Amino acid sequence: MKWSLRIARVSGIDIKVHASFLLVVLYFAAMFGSPHGLLGAAFGAAVVITLFACVVLHELGHSLVAQRFGVSVREIILLPIGGLARLGREPSRPFHELVIAVAGPLVNVVIAVALTGLALALYGPHMLLSRQFFDSALGPPSFTGLLSSLLWANVALAVFNMIPALPMDGGRVFRALLAMAVGKPKATRIAATVGQLLAAGLAVIGIYVGNLILALIAAFVFLGASQERVNSQVTEAVRGLSAGEVCDPNAITLMPGDMVGSAVDHLLRTAQTHFAVVHGEHLVGTLSRDEVLAAAGAVGLGAFVAGVMRRDIVQIDAGMPLDELRPMFMDLGGRPVAVFGPHGFAGLLGYEDVSRIA
Fold this sequence. Notes:
By secondary structure, the protein is α/β, with parallel strands linked by helices. It contains 13 helices and ten strands. The chain folds into three domains: 159 residues, no CATH class; 68 residues, no CATH class; 115 residues, CBS-domain (Roll).
C-alpha cells in the first residue's frame, strides 16, 4: 500500500504504518495536551502507540496461525481505523478460517487478563472495580490511566471484533461455522447479508445518538461485507482455471519501435487494457491503457514505445491457479503479470482480465 513505512519484520511478515496514522497520534497528543500541557501530549501519544502495539499483536495472532496452516501473509498495515493483515489467499478449510479468525481477539483477551492481573497486584480488587479506575483513562497523565486505557481497550477490541458481521473476525467465525454445513459460497452470502443488516443497525444508532465515528465504522463494515460477497463470487467463477488457460493468444502486441500513436489507435479499436512489448520472441516491457494515454499527453503520439514502456515485469508460471493470482493484483498497483509456460511467453493478465472472466 502506498504511503506506508515498514517499521518491523516478524516471521517474514512486514509490519507497516500508513502515513495517515500520524494524524491519530497528533489528535490524541492534542486532546491530552490541551488540558495537561507537554506532559499530557506525550501521554496521549504514548496511549495511541501502546494501543496500536496491541493491535499489531492482534494481527500477528491472525498471521502466525495463518502461516501455521500454510497461508502466506504479505504484510500487516496499521491504519487510523485499526490493523489489517493481508493474507496471500483465503484459508481453504472452514476450520482453518475459524481458528485464524479467533486467534486475533484471543490475543486481546490474553493481554486484558495480563493487565487485569497487574492491576490487581498494584491496586487490589476494590480499586480495579471502582469508577475511579475506569475514569482514570481520561484523567490526568498517570500510569494508572495508561493501564486502565489499555485494559478496557483490549476488552473492547476482543468484544467488538467478535460481532458476527463480515469482514470482522466474528463474521469470519460465523461464516466458517456456516461453511461446515452449507459450503463456503452460501455461507459467505448469508454472513455478508447478516453483516450488512448489523451495519445498517449500527449506522442508525450512530446517527440517532450523534456518534459520527460509529456511523463511519458501520459504513466500512457494510462496504466490507459487500466486497466479501463479490470476492466469493469471483473466486468461485475462476476456481479450477489457471493463468495459462485464460491468456488471449490473439492479444495485440507492440514492438519497441512502434509509435505511441499506434498504441492509442489500438486502444480505440479494442477493449484490451494491457499491451506486451516484444522484441522478436522476447518480452521486453508492458504498457497499460493509462500509461499509453499519459504518454500521449506527455511526450506526444510520435514518441517511441521503447521510451515509455514499463520494463519491470512480474512473471508467473502458466500453471498458477487464478484464485491464487487475484490477491497479487492488490500489491501491483494496476500492473499486469506476464505468464510464461513451457514454450515461453504466453500473454499478459491484469486484474480487469480476471474480473472479466468471472
